[in-house]
Amino acid sequence: MNFPFFVARRYLFSKKSTHAINIISGVSVVGVTIATMALVVTLSVFNGFHDLVATFFTAFDPQIKVMPAKGKTAPADDPVLTQIRQLPEIDVAMESLEDQALAVFNHHQAMVTIKGVEDNFNRLTHIVDILEDGDTLRENNADKYILHAADMNYGIIGMRIAEQLGMGYSFPGTMQVYAPRREGQLNMAEPSQGFTMDELYSPGALFCVRQAKYDAKYIITSLDFARQLFEQEGHLSSLELRLKPGSDFDRVKQEIKQLAADKYIVQDRYEQQDDTFKIMKIEKFMAYIFLTFILVVASFNIIGSLSMLIIDKKNDVVTLRNLGASGKQIVRIFLFEGRLISALGAVLGIVLGLLLCWIQQTYGIVALGPSSDSFVVNAYPVSVHPWDILLVFVTVLAVGFLSVWYPVRYFAKRLL
Q: Is the pLDDT of residue 271 over 60?
């Protein structure tokens, strides 16, 4: 049996001669518990927002996107892209061409990004799930997903763009789209000659990703329309892929990278939104650092509790020395005492934190505010990640150990 640990455990739960020591020890445990609980809940809320935002992007972004490393476009019949398409794990491969253009409707103008896609775009993404046509009784808008019919091209417009152009869920007539010509010089006498123009019709629905970078920017239309508008026949700006269910994503992605070499950039969904997720990671890290400082402050109570315990147990220390205990063993007794307080606070804090997370997930007790009904979710989203729980537990133990190591050795030398 570990003698210092055994004595420290008895000291933790035994009644002290001075009642204030019990109170301070209890306050120390409560302080560590609350700080640990705050860490668990805060990190889980950040995870919840991270996972929530990720679901928005999955409705629009492909699993894997292959883009030219140099320039905006590449030949669609590039042998490298053909090899990637023919990989056995690829379920859907779609060519896409996107570039900026000017959209004009009823004297309203907006700079937009035209994204030309093939007809299988709805198989590549969950675009149908984010279409809205104002009919709340409709269960899905699959019949509203249409890119072209005969010689007519349709444009599925982002919700924010529709607001800028003064449109509803559908618009009468046509919307004009202008793009600068790739070749030739602009003639100021006839500036219209420097642009190509084409028209888009309304399919009767808009898309809403609930992310401004899409809703206020993108118009989805047919690939042929985009190639004609931007004068990029036979070219693409990206090859977008979806893997077969059960495929080893990391292995396939690495294989695609090897095929692409330095000629193409290969990105998964998180890399496509690297700026957004990087900001969220930084915010989560800053919250972790801030709450760790609070945990350090809470650990000062442990120092006070141990210093009073050392004074209270001076007679016990004399007895232990007479029984043969070394000075090192006596110091370890009080070090174990501080660690036990930290460990007890960590366990209680994690249990309470997980309980609060479960309550929030199940019942949504904490709402986003008075206008929560206008948000995507009404209550703060929560997602518990096992690695975060392990990080919190290790952090609490590390802070507890470091906070008591020097004070215990100092007081032990002065008072024992």
A: yes
